[in-house]
Automatic annotation (TrEMBL):
Name of this protein: RsbT co-antagonist protein RsbR
InterPro entries tied to this protein: Bact_StressResp_Reg, STAS_dom, STAS_dom_sf
Residue ranges of the TM segments: none
CDD domains found in the cross-reference section: STAS_RsbR_RsbS_like
Lineage: Bacteria, Pseudomonadati, Myxococcota, Polyangia, Nannocystales
Key words of the record: Coiled coil
Domain STAS: 234-345
Superkingdom of origin organism: Bacteria
Sections of the chain in a coiled coil: 192-219
Amino acid sequence: MIERATLGGLEFEYDADRGNIRMAGNPAIFIWTESTLAGLLSGLQRMVGTDRFRLALHGGGRDGVDGDWAYISQYPTFEEGFTALIHVAATFGWGRWELVALDRAARRAVVRVHHHWETDIQKVLGVSWGASYLGGKFAGIFQRHFGVSQCWAEQVAFVTNGDKYDEFVITPSEASLEDRLEHMLATDDATRADLAVALERLRKEVEERTEAEQRLLEKLSLIARQEDAIRALAAPIIEVWEGVLTLPLIGTVDSQRAAETMGRLLDTIIQKKARYTIIDLTGVEFIDTATAEHLLRLVLAAELLGARCIITGIRPTIAQTMVSIGVDLGKLTTLASLRDGLVYCIDQTRPAKR
């Protein structure tokens, strides 16, 4: 359901089904000035500070005058168009404007405003920011009228300071809004304080992250040491007799574990100058083909270092795997148990009786 009404020569259209309002054909909203809008602006001011807040409003007003200028341009002269815009502004609740002075040669204009919404908000909040948004709007309008790259609207009278009206003097400006913002950021103590706070927060975050990374590295190092200890416990190399080493393997022996064990055993053979090494497979239920090949290479490598390998405790399934890859078990010294291997090696290392 759409309802229409005309106020001040402008048509208002209400679409109740969609919850929309259009004024003079343009989308619009109604908002409570002294509560909702006041809360919105005061929240922004607290967040960015008064000086940046003023610049932001001024820039917003300046950048939002396309529609205003198009409306003014419909009339034969600027004065007629601006007078018509004054009527529209009053209809839309922007207060009563007066074009007090306009000097084209000097490029200077003076605009006076009564009962503007920015002033109403400041009265409610008990502050005096100035009507920066409206000033930006005037700057944008006269910037186009004067044909210059930029204008600035300087507010010279404030209702919030006890004056009867808000008044703006609009003239060309060499400093753009962006220049003013950059200068403010370079000189404003509050801004420097904000930057210092941000840098301190960043420094603490970096410190905390570095400490967290250090703790993580320490934990990873501890885990690595524990893994090494577990691997050593899972396959301990024990010197049970002078020149005799034993390597009891327990559990599942995969290719990685076999390769690691091979390296440790060969190093120990060299260190201990071992002549015999017993590899006991009593605790191993299964090895795959690749692991069996590793085990065979281990035996051959140990013998190249001068240590004869004796394999004990071979289960039938392991024997089948070795046969399947072509290992001639007859060429290996194999005994039924670790005890038999120990007895054999000890006998071999004892001095011969005369």
